[in-house]
Structures are given as structure tokens and as C-alpha cells.
Specification:
Chain lengths: 520, 642, 106
């Protein structure tokens, strides 16, 4: 262990957190300084996360870079225990990339810039914490640290959506009563996101306490996931106990993963959030939920997981198909991406629920792939909205001629999302299909069909928004700025790289999945 | 031979180069794409020579399962997923390879694809001259052909699917190339989505085979089929699922709707799609998976029936269509149907032979149509006539293509069509051969119509100042025309080592040219009669068609409206799919969100609204509450403590 | 010796009077006085109970007296604070009628 290995995990958490703290001392009225400083901080975290991923030894596998910082003794036994396995390594890398991209894209934030980056960086720190924490208390702590800044980020810097009244029609017939939430101010999005996620984390907290109490009954009470994992492997937790605790984690974390029917916060939240926050939110934050189901639910409660997976996979399938069908009739660019995220997280959920090694690998790869892809989409939509101030695809048209780069990058992301081979989405979805096919055949057919539905709404969006003769209104519209171009190009390269040569990722994920699957 | 992978890779490599540097290169990067495919064509000959000299002893080569033909495999691992080191047979791990297989079928397809692509790309130099986005055009072209070449080289189903989807994407990009107009935009979307729905079947079929065999490798899959490891039901279902994909790509009924619309793209693209790529992929897939298909009688019968329905239906539409490119499009659908029919009738050689012969002829016809369109900017055959006066070269070359497809003896189309007839006659009930002959007659008739109406007869005066095609265009057409004439002779036992195509591309065992005299005679007579009738009716106008029009009143109308299939689809999409989508979106808003998620929030708020009135603000209310509470607690304690 | 019950009756009566005062009076000053009454009722009860504890000998247990002293201290502080608040109230609103001071309701 060299000094990098010893401190890297702690640094991933501390660097953005310290960056957030230091940002507070920057002068209030110089937004660019805050931006430069945030770039500097997130660049360091990016380097650390790449270093961690590269230095993770997939030949050995298991948990690496272990460090334990003692905190509270018995009877609570809470330590800051950090370690990373193959699954976490991939997601840490994802967070490093997306955080850096989101900070770069946030050049356009001019209102209270400093405060924005303080919140954004602490959010990033929390996400890193969840991925590497090996102690339930700190996992929950970082989970909340990742979720709470969202409220302010959306509420202060977000944008409201007001629909025209003819939206309230069904088959052309005006609906007599007010559906209310078609007009969605940013405060609504922020509040709903916060309340739903906090409700989910209440379930998680109850589950964590139940685990602590259960471990106290068989010996020393502990929050350490390693020790709880050993207890679980020895079969100390009765199936009855696991059967009622697992759904707490399944729903609690599932809420953040956009699990149907608790997904509606996600499109509304994505739409209201500013670009950089949408990127982090859809790109990384939703993955926390899926990661939590694997890391806490499956590893600590294997019997419960096995009993509940049929439910989870059905919900996941609903996510896929329902999300895709809902996306088909949306008119707002961001809502389409929001519902497509719901649909794509469905594949992650399905992959997890297969309890099949290939399916689980696919789920993790899909998290990575979807993270990059959806972040890219939001970045480009942000660039378009910044210039046109319109997100309605029935009004936008012919942008390809005016904003060639933005359109091109968006199109690539769209193609990745409809599962085009050669881009990362295909490899991941394919593995999920393989897993589901081996375990729940009829649902696999539905899932494959869902991928075909994705093609419909993505192509509809591309055709409406980017193709055609440009509207005279777009005369003199600038293409993406250099920063947006470089973020877009980098993300496109990642999508292509993973699509063409997924082995560098899959071999790391494989060893992580291996240790999880040993329990089943 | 191991260098075959270079053929697609060169074209793949051209794509990013053109996109990134095309603007600064001469010709906007178009020479790059052409050089790549030219090199591919050259390597094809090296591979061809290598394959001819290879034997089962050559490294990587063996006698293929099912086909019993020489098959060479080369592969490297692409990625693995699942438990490291687990046995793939246990399905706990998948291993996917970049692999290629080279057998007679692949070699034939490589030759067709590289040659036609080369011709089309050179032709495009003239046709697309001056287009502002010619760099993108060539980039898409290079990607298209590279994907198609990967598809025919793939040695496992997954790689095939990868290439399959990329082919679909490229057709989308090229059909919608002129996206400023709404029609290409819609046509591109339609092509992608319709084929994509077929692809669902393909992917499910591939996964089904994987779940039984534990591998994506075609060789292993076919070996498992051969050794009876798969149940008959699985074989039939997976074959039909694969066929669903093939139906989408090869535009078989009812997935044929995208192909006629696909002509909204630049004409050279249509030539490529109709001849060498995209639609050939479906036929290729069925041929490639022939060990699987031939193991199930049901699947074979379905393939034959779908093929026949498609062939006959499309031929009738082609007969009444008024748009030159649409006539050719329906003709393609019809001929693809014939190929499927042939495959369904165990006519493996005949189908591939026809695929090649049709490929050359149809590429020629489309390039000819492109030439006409390039010069006249008109596609409605009713407005054309006697164009041979101003476009003599195009007229001659187009006529060769038409005669070849019409089945006039010694031209390529004659031989391959004859082989199909023999196969259908041998293996399927009588009704099939009757309807196939009818299709052959119709096919000759609509070809005669297209040819005579456009190039012969009374000259349409408004095209007085029209010029013939530039050299890049007619030279490529000329080369294709040469092939359309002589290619059919490959069916014969030529002097030298070549004993006929039946000994080169075969399934199970080679066979020489089979000729059933009466069939050959009937089909020849039908073809010649059709062309004579066409000449009289469309060029000389000595046959009055009004009588026929009146006799076939409503069937004509039905055919002119393409059997209303498009309308049915449109109705389904608008009324069913989109309505359902809107309904689900409404459910999501009104029920899941406003009731499910907002509901608890609203209940809380309303409760708070009601309950707030207990806060009266009067001190004695609070005091009373405190006192009552105290008394209540005291009573409670008294009761509990007994 | 006076029986314990006598003290308890006195204490209960005083407490009830105080409670009535708190609930029925409108003047803040009177309410504070009533609260004092209630607190003293409790004090009587505590001291009486402490001095009647059996079996421990006289003055064996000072708990009641200690709590009573606490209460007296707290009550003094409370009166001080309460009177201060009432004074401010009177300055601001020219009334000590609690019915008119209902800003804190919904």
C-alpha cells in the first residue's frame, strides 16, 4: 500500500467537501472565481477517481483500499470504514466524470454562483461517501448529504414549467377538472423530490436500525457492513426477519432509483433542476438507489432478496415499458429525458432483480452507461434551452443547422439510449436481457420490446427537434460554447469507448458481482 | 484470408476521419471512403484466392456444420461478463468474441457488397456533386457498408446483431439524409422503427438460442441443432424469431412498408439498400442460419409462405405504381419474397444466386433511375416517355437491367429465377409453383412497363434539353450491366475447374444446374410474352389499357393503394399506440402523481388546515386542555395501576 | 396531629381555585396570581406528605421540602419573567386582557 492507496478513498470524500467549505470564503460578487475553483476541486476528484479505478486490482477482487477510522466504541460501534469493490470502483469513476462535467457545464450559473458550487460539491462528496462507506451509519449519513443539497439546488437555481392549457386534453377532449400539477413551478419539483426521497430514507433508516438490533441479539451490535455481512453469510438473520426488512431497503433505495410507482419525483425534479444538477441527479444520484439495493439489501439480506426479487423484477419491467410509453407523448425535451431515465433505470432494477451474474453485471454497466448518456443529454438540452428558451419539441425544429455540435452530441446520446450497438447502452442492456432471459423469460421479451419503444420516442424527438429547415427565430443562434463542446465530445468518446471495448469496465465489475453472487 | 477483417475495418476507419477532417480534405473526404472500399474490394480478391486455396487442413478451417462447405473461423475475445472463470455452458458467464467466419456464402456476399458499394460510391461522386454535406454522406456510406461487411463476416449471433443494428442506423441516416424535407424524415423514422420491431424478434431469438446452447457462436449453435440437443419446439420458435428480424430487414409482408418510402433518400442510397446491404441482410440471415431453419418444417413452410405472399403482393403493386423508384422498390420486395420462398423450398443455392443476380441488376436499375431523376428531376412515369432520345446510354443500360430482372434468357435474372422455380417445384405443393410462375409473369410485365414507358414510345417534349449522365455515373452503370449480362453464366458448368455455382455455394451437398425443361420453357415464354405485351401496350400504345382498367376496377384500386397496409399501420400508430401513450402519460400525471404522490401530501395539508382551528389563541382554552389532560392522565394511571 | 388528608383537601381546594382562576380570568396579572396559587397548593401537598412519612422518624426525609424550595425559586423567576412580559404587553397593546392577545393562533 502506497500513500495514494491509503488515503485515496478518504480524499474522494474530503476533497469536494473541503472544496465546498473553502468556496464559502470566496468573494461573493465574482462568479467566475467560484467556477474556476470548483473546476480545480472537481478535477482533483476526477484524477483521484480515475486513479482508484485504474489501481483497483481486478485480478485479486474483493474490497480494496481498506481504511478504518475509529469513531464510536461499543455499544454503538460506528467507525468510518472505507473500502471499494469492483462495483463501487465503476461508480466512483462515474461520479468523478459526471461531477467534473457538471461543474464545467455550470459556467452559465451567474446567480449566487459561489453558493451553487458549495452545494454541488458537497453533493458530490456525499455520493462518493455512499459508494465507499462500509458502515451503515456513514452510508446513511453520506446518502443524506447527497440528497439534501438537491432541495436548494433546484429551489434556488431551478426553472419552472408552465404548460399551455390545451395540454389538459385526453383524446382531444378537454378534461373538466384541473389536473393541477401540469403547471410545475420549481418549488413544486424541489419539494416533491425532497419529501419523497426523505420518506424513502426513513424506511432505510428503520431498516438500518433493525439490522443493528438484530446484530445485537446475536452478539455485539454493530453498524459495520463487513461484520453484518459475515453474520448474514453465517445465516444469523432469520428468513422471517429478512423478509420484512428487505422491502424497507428495496422501497427506500428504490425510490431514489426511480422505482415505479415512486418515480414521479424524478421527471419533475430533473425538469426543474438547472443543467449541471440534472446531470448529477440523473447521472449519479439515481444510481445511489440501485447501488444501495445491491450493497445493503442483497449483501446483508440475501434470503429476503431472494424472496422479494420476483416483485422487484415486475416493478422493473413496469419501469421500462411504462417509462418508455410515457416518454412517447411528452412534449418537453427534459420530460422526455426524465421519463427515459425512469425507463432506463428499469433495466438496472431488472438486472439487479435477476440475481444472475450476467444480469447484475449488466445492471452495473447500465448504471455507468446511463449515467454518462443521460448527463450528456441534459448538458446538451441545457445548451439548447440556454439559447432558445424553449424546450417544447413541437415548437423547436431544424436545430441541426444552427447548433450542429449540440445536436450531434445529443443524437449520439439518444442513439446510445435506444440501445444502438457500438455505444455503451447496448452492451449493458444486452447483458441485462441475458440475465432476465435466463431467469424470467416472459419479462425479458417485454424488456426487449421496451428497447424498441425507446427508439420510437428518441427518433420522434430527433426528427422534431433537430431535423428540418430551421425556424427564422433561430437566426443567429450560437452553437455550443467551447466548454459545452468539450464536455459533449468527452462524453461521446466515453460512450463509444465503452460500447466498442467494454472489457476494461466489465472485468472490474465482474469481480464485484462475483463476490455478491457468492451469497446466492 | 485472416486479413478479411480489414475489409470492414478500413471502411469503419474512414468514418471518423471523414467526420473530423472531411471539411479540409479534397472532395470533402469522399476519396477517403472510396479508397477504403476500393481497398476492401481488393482484399476481397485476396480473401477469395485464399479461400479457394484453403482446405480443411488450413488453420482455423473445417468442414462447416450443416452446410458441409469449407468454413474458416477466426476470433478474438471482445468482452466477458458474469462470474470470472465460470463455465459458459452453465450460463453464469457470457463470452463474446469479435469473430469472423469465411465460407462460400460469406465470400459471395463480400464480393457483392464490396463491388456494389464501390460502384455506388463512385456513382455518387457525380450524383451528389455539389451537395453541401457530401462529407457526411460519404461518412454514412462508409459506415453503412462497413456494418454490412461485418454482418456477413460475423461468426456469432451477437456480432451479427451488432452489425445488423448498425446497418439499420445507417439506412436511417441515409434515407433521412435530406432531412429538410418532411418526407425523408418520416421515411427514415419509419424504416428504423419498422425494422427495429423485427429486431426485437431477432434479439429474442438469439437470446433463446443462447439460453439453450450457452454460446452465441453460430458453429456451436448449429452443432447443437445437428446433434439434437435442442427440442423441436425451441428450434421452431427460435427460427421463427430470427425470421421476424429477417422479415423486418428484408421487407417481407407485413414489414415491407418501410422499403418503398426509403426511396426518399438519395437514389444511390436506394441502390445500395436494395442491392447489396440492408435488404440482403434478411435473406443472408436465413441462409446463414439454414441449419436451424431446415431442422424445422414449420419454420420452412412459414418462410416459404411469407415469401410467396410478399412476392405476389408486391408484384401486383409494382404493376400499377406510377413512381419510377416506387416500381423498383416494390420489385425489390417481390424479388426478396422470391428469395425467401426459395429458401423455404430448400433452394439454398437458388436463393443466394438470385440474391447476387438481383443485386447487380437492381443496383443497375436504381442507378439508371437515379440518372433519369438527376437529369429530369421527375419520377412520375406518366409524365415520361421516349427518353432514349436524350439519354441513350442510360436507356440501354436500364433496359439491360430490366430484361435481366424480367427473366429474359441468358441474362443473369433468368438463370437464378429458373433455379428458384425448380426448387419450388420440387419441394412445395402445386399451388406454390403456380403462384410463383404468376409472380414471374408479373415481374416481367412491370419491368417491361417501367422500361417502355420511360425510355420508349412518344417523346415527352418537356425533356428536350435534358442531358445524359456524366461519366462517373454511366461507367459504374456499365460495369454493373456487364455483370447483369454475364453473371448468370456462372450457373453453367464452365470449362476449367468451375463446375457451376451449385458446387460453390451449397447446403449439404453440391449439385449441378438443374433444368426442368417445361418450367424453363414456360417461364421463358411468359417473360418474352410479357415484354412483347409491354412493348405493344406502353411503347406502341397499340393495346388499349382502358378495357383492362375497367375489368379490374376495384382490385386495381386496392393494388394502387398498396392494399391499404400503410393506412392500417398509420391508424394503429395514431389511434392505438399514441393514444395509449397519452393515456399512460395521463395516468402517470393524474393517478400515480396527483393521487399517489401528491395525495398523502394533500391529505396532510387538508388535515392541518382543519386542525389548526383548535389553536384558539385564548389562554384558558390551553389551560382547560392542560387540566383535562392531567385529569385524563391521572385516571389512566389509576386504571392501569389498578 | 393534623391528619394528612386535611392538608391534601386544602391543597386540592387551593389548586382547584387556582385552576379556576387561570381558566376564567381575563387579566394576565390575575392569571399569574392563580398560577402562584396552584404552585403553592403543590408546595403544601409536598411538605405535608414529606413530614407525614411513616417509619422513618420525623424529618427523616427532606425530598418534599427540597422540591418545594425549588418550586418557590422557579415560581419567583416565573413571576419575574411573567410580570416583565405583561409589562411589555401593556406597553405595546395597552391591555393585559389575554383574549385580545391571540396573535399566535393559526
Amino acid at each position: 500500500m502506497n500513500s495514494f492507496d491509503q488515503s485515496a478513498l478518504l480524499l474522494t470524500i474530503l476533497v469536494p467537501l473541503a472544496g465546498a467549505g473553502l468556496s464559502m470564503f470566496l468573494p461573493r460578487n465574482r462568479p467566475n472565481d467560484a467556477w474556476y475553483f470548483a473546476i480545480f476541486v472537481s478535477a482533483i476528484t476526477l484524477v483521484i477517481s480515475i486513479g482508484l479505478f485504474v489501481r483497483y486490482d481486478f485480478g485479486v477482487g474483493g474490497y480494496q483500499f481498506q481504511r478504518i477510522y475509529e469513531w464510536l466504541d461499543a455499544p454503538l460501534n460506528i467507525d468510518l470504514h472505507l473500502a471499494m469493490d469492483g462495483i463501487a470502483a465503476t461508480l466512483v469513476l462515474l461520479n468523478g466524470i459526471v461531477l467534473f462535467g457538471a461543474v464545467l457545464i455550470s459556467q452559465t450559473i451567474k446567480h449566487r454562483t459561489r453558493d451553487f458550487f458549495v452545494l454541488l460539491l458537497s453533493l458530490g462528496s456525499g455520493v462518493f461517501g455512499v459508494f465507499v462507506a462500509q458502515d451503515l451509519f456513514f452510508l446513511f449519513f453520506f446518502y443524506e448529504l447527497a440528497v439534501l443539497p438537491m432541495y436548494l439546488l433546484i429551489g434556488v437555481w431551478g426553472s419552472s414549467t408552465i404548460f399551455d392549457p390545451d395540454r389538459q386534453r385526453l383524446w382531444g377532449i378537454p378534461i373538466p377538472f384541473d389536473l393541477g400539477s401540469y403547471n410545475r413551478p420549481k418549488e413544486y419539483g424541489a419539494m416533491k423530490l425532497m419529501l419523497v426521497l426523505v420518506a424513502g430514507s426513513v424506511l432505510i433508516w428503520v431498516g438500518i436500525l433493525a439490522l443493528y438490533v438484530a446484530s445485537a441479539q446475536v452478539g455485539q451490535g454493530t453498524f459495520s457492513m463487513v461484520e453484518l455481512g459475515i453474520l448474514a453469510e453465517r445465516g444469523e438473520f432469520s428468513p422471517a426477519f429478512q423478509n420484512w426488512v428487505f422491502p424497507l431497503f428495496m422501497i427506500g433505495f428504490g425510490v431514489l432509483a426511480g422505482l415505479w410507482p415512486f418515480h414521479t419525483w424524478s421527471p419533475d425534479g430533473h425538469v426543474a433542476a438547472p443543467t449541471g444538477v440534472s446531470m448529477l441527479h440523473a447521472g449519479v444520484l439515481m444510481k445511489l438507489g440501485a447501488f444501495g439495493i445491491i450493497r445493503v439489501g442483497m449483501v446483508l439480506l440475501p434470503d429476503g432478496a431472494e424472496a422479494w426479487m420476483p416483485v422487484l423484477i415486475v416493478l422493473g419491467t413496469v419501469n421500462v415499458v411504462y417509462g418508455a410509453i410515457s416518454a412517447m407523448s411528452q412534449r418537453d425535451l427534459k420530460y422526455i429525458i426524465g421519463y427515459s431515465s425512469v425507463s432506463h433505470m428499469g433495466y438496472v432494477i431488472m438486472g439487479i432483480a435477476t440475481l444472475h451474474p450476467v444480469g447484475l453485471t449488466g445492471a452495473v454497466l447500465q448504471m455507468f452507461s446511463h449515467g454518462i448518456m443521460t448527463a450528456l443529454m441534459f448538458a446538451m438540452v441545457g445548451a439548447i434551452y440556454e439559447r432558445t428558451h424553449i424546450r417544447d419539441i413541437t415548437v423547436l425544429n431544424g436545430l441541426m443547422k444552427r447548433m450542429g455540435f449540440a445536436s450531434f452530441f445529443f443524437a449520439i446520446a439518444g442513439l446510445a439510449s435506444l440501445g444502438l450497438p457500438g455505444l455503451s447502452g447496448f452492451v449493458a442492456e444486452f447483458m441485462v436481457f441475458v440475465g432476465v432471459f435466463k431467469t424470467y423469460l416472459p419479462l425479458a421479451v417485454l424488456a426487449v420490446f421496451g428497447a424498441a419503444l425507446t427508439a420510437i420516442y428518441i427518433l420522434r424527438l430527433l426528427a422534431r427537434t433537430f431535423y428540418g429547415e430551421p425556424d427564422p427565430r433561430w437566426e443567429g443562434l450560437n452553437d455550443a460554447s467551447p466548454v459545452e463542446k468539450s464536455v459533449g465530445a468527452a462524453f461521446v468518446l466515453i460512450l463509444l469507448f465503452v460500447g466498442v471495448w467494454p472489457a476494461p469496465l466489465t472485468r472490474v465489475i465482474n469481480v464485484g458481482v462475483d463476490s455478491v453472487m457468492r451469497l446466492f | 484470408m485472416v486479413w478479411a477483417w480489414l475489409i470492414p475495418v478500413l471502411s469503419f476507419a474512414a468514418v471518423p476521419l471523414i467526420i473530423l477532417f472531411g471539411k479540409r480534405l479534397p472532395g470533402k473526404g469522399s476519396p477517403l471512403a472510396i479508397l477504403a472500399i476500393l481497398a476492401g474490394f481488393a482484399i476481397f480478391w485476396v480473401v477469395f484466392a485464399g479461400f479457394l486455396s484453403a482446405s480443411p487442413d488450413t488453420e482455423g478451417c473445417e468442414i462447416g456444420v450443416g452446410t458441409e462447405a469449407l468454413t474458416c473461423n477466426f476470433q478474438i475475445t471482445w468482452f466477458e461478463a458474469g462470474i470470472p472463470g465460470a463455465d459458459t455452458k452453465d450460463h453464469d458467464r457470457i463470452e463474446v468474441a469479435w469473430g469472423m467466419t469465411i465460407d462460400p456464402l460469406t465470400v459471395a456476399m463480400l464480393g457483392l457488397a464490396t463491388f456494389v458499394a464501390l460502384m455506388v460510391q463512385i456513382y455518387s461522386l457525380g450524383y451528389m456533386h455539389g451537395d453541401p454535406r457530401i462529407d457526411w454522406y460519404y461518412a454514412f456510406h462508409a459506415l453503412f457498408i462497413a456494418s454490412m461487411l461485418t454482418l456477413v463476416l460475423a461468426d456469432n449471433f451477437l456480432l451479427l446483431y451488432v452489425a445488423w443494428e448498425l446497418v439499420g442506423l445507417c439506412s436511417y441516416l441515409l434515407i433521412g439524409f435530406w432531412h429538410e424535407r418532411p418526407e425523408p424524415r418520416e421515411a427514415a423514422k419509419k424504416a428504423f422503427i419498422v425494422t427495429r420491431i423485427g429486431d426485437v424478434g431477432l434479439l429474442v431469438g438469439i437470446l433463446l438460442l443462447w439460453s439453450q446452447v450457452g454460446s452465441f457462436s453460430m458453429t456451436e449453435t448449429f452443432a447443437a441443432v445437428e446433434q439434437g440437443e435442442l427440442s423441436q419446439g425451441v428450434i421452431t420458435v427460435s427460427a421463427l424469431l430470427l425470421f421476424l428480424g429477417a422479415m423486418g430487414k428484408s421487407a417481407q409482408f407485413p414489414f415491407h412498408v418501410w422499403l418503398p418510402d426509403a426511396m426518399e433518400g438519395p437514389t444511390p442510397v436506394s441502390a445500395l439498400i436494395h442491392a447489396a446491404t440492408m435488404v440482403a441482410a434478411g435473406v443472408y440471415l436465413v441462409a446463414r442460419a439454414f441449419p436451424l431453419f431446415s431442422a424445422s418444417d414449420t419454420a420452412m413452410l412459414v418462410v416459404a409462405t411469407v415469401g410467396l405472399i410478399t412476392a405476389l403482393g408486391a408484384a401486383t403493386i409494382a404493376l400499377v405504381a406510377t413512381d419510377l423508384k416506387r416500381i423498383l422498390a416494390y420489385s425489390t420486395i417481390s424479388h426478396l419474397g422470391l428469395m425467401m420462398l426459395s429458401l423455404g423450398a430448400f433452394g439454398y443455392t437458388a436463393a443466394i444466386f438470385h440474391l447476387l443476380a438481383h443485386g447487380f441488376s437492381k443496383a443497375l436499375l436504381f442507378l439508371g433511375a437515379g440518372s433519369v431523376m438527376h437529369s429530369t428531376e421527375e419520377l412520375d412515369v406518366r409524365k415520361m416517355g421516349g427518353l432514349r432520345k436524350v439519354m441513350p446510354i442510360t436507356a440501354i443500360l436500364f433496359s439491360i437491367g430490366a430484361l435481366s430482372l424480367g427473366g429474359i434468357p441468358i441474362l443473369a435474372g433468368f438463370w437464378s429465377k429458373d433455379e428458384i422455380l425448380v426448387a419450388v417445384n420440387k419441394d412445395l405443393p402445386v399451388i406454390f409453383i403456380v403462384l410463383t410462375l404468376l409472380t414471374a409473369l408479373l415481374s416481367a410485365l412491370y419491368m417491361a412497363r417501367a422500361m417502355f414507358v420511360v425510355f420508349y414510345g412518344r417523346f415527352a417534349e418537356q425533356f428536350e434539353h435534358v442531358h445524359d449522365a456524366p461519366p462517373t455515373m454511366w461507367i459504374t452503370m456499365g460495369l454493373l450491366a456487364v455483370l447483369a449480362i454475364v453473371f448468370g453464366l456462372l450457373a453453367l458448368d464452365l470449362p476449367g475447374p468451375f463446375k457451376g455455382i451449385g458446387y460453390a455455394i451449397f447446403y449439404h451437398e453440391g449439385h449441378g444446374l438443374e433444368i426442368v425443361i417445361w418450367l424453363a420453357a414456360v417461364s421463358t415464354v411468359l417473360a418474352i410474352a410479357a415484354f412483347i405485351y409491354g412493348y405493344l401496350a406502353y411503347a406502341r400504345k397499340s393495346v388499349n389499357l382502358e378495357g383492362a382498367r375497367r375489368t379490374f376496377g376495384w382490385p386495381l384500386k386496392v393494388a394502387e393503394n398498396k392494399y391499404y397496409v400503410d393506412e392500417v399501420y398509420q391508424w394503429t400508430v395514431d389511434r392505438v399506440v399514441l393514444s395509449f401513450s397519452r393515456f399512460i402519460a395521463w395516468v402517470d400525471r393524474a393517478l400515480v402523481n396527483d393521487v399517489g404522490i401528491n395525495g398523502p401530501g394533500d391529505v396532510t395539508r387538508v388535515l392541518g388546515d382543519r386542525l389548526k382551528y383548535h389553536v384558539t389563541g385564548y389562554v384558558y382554552t390551553y389551560a382547560l386542555a392542560m387540566a383535562l389532560g392531567l385529569i385524563g392522565l391521572a385516571i389512566f394511571w389509576w386504571v392501569v395501576s389498578g | 396531629m393534623v391528619p394528612l388528608i386535611a392538608f391534601q383537601v386544602l391543597s386540592a381546594a387551593l389548586f382547584a381555585i387556582g385552576l379556576y382562576g387561570v381558566m376564567a380570568r381575563r387579566s394576565a396579572v390575575l392569571i399569574i396570581m392563580s398560577i402562584e396559587l396552584m404552585l403553592n397548593a403543590v408546595n403544601i401537598n409536598l411538605i405535608a406528605a414529606a413530614s407525614h412519612l411513616d417509619g422513618m422518624g420525623k424529618w427523616a426525609n427532606f425530598d418534599g421540602q427540597i422540591i418545594a424550595i425549588f418550586i418557590i425559586t422557579v415560581a419567583a423567576a416565573e413571576v419575574g419573567l411573567g410580570m416583565a412580559i405583561i409589562l411589555r404587553m401593556y406597553r405595546n397593546r395597552s391591555t393585559v386582557n389575554v383574549d385580545e392577545i391571540n396573535l399566535m393562533k393559526w
